[in-house]
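Sanity check

After download, print the first record. It should look like this:
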Amino acid sequence: MHITDMRGNTLMGTIHTIIHHEPDFFNDLDDSVINMHTNNGLIHDCTHAGMSVQQAERKLTDYMRQANGFIDVLYPAGFSVSFDKTFINREMPAVLSNVQHRMVYLTCLNVVVSHLIPETWNHIPDFYTDHRAYTCVRGEIDRYRSYLDVFMPALESLNMK
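Expected structure tokens:
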């Protein structure tokens, strides 16, 4: 998790957790998912290190309480925010208990800009991921900030800060 303001500026340190799983946890996953997460080291990290879901929930809940202490509204954001929220709410329901139900969904921006403003889309950096959470989140923030670089001058000219 990474807490930023609406301009993509980091407000507090990131938090990173790896949840431990026994090797048989991965038996029901698709081969493509197994290959991807074997190649990026996640399966190794989950089976050889990490913490329990309960430990992760406590750690992430504490982090979110800190964020609630100085941010008025917390909006979940990202490319796959619905997927992420579903997983977190199912496995660690306390973590997002004080988070706004509205989301900043970058996939929507990607679709709209790529189809309606292709000249802008051509200047947005490609998204790279190794399918590890930290890389994905950092890439999502960078891409979000690229959108702001394009849109903020127009919004500021309309006095819509």
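If your output differs, re-run the checksum step. Summary of this record's structure: The mean pLDDT is 91.
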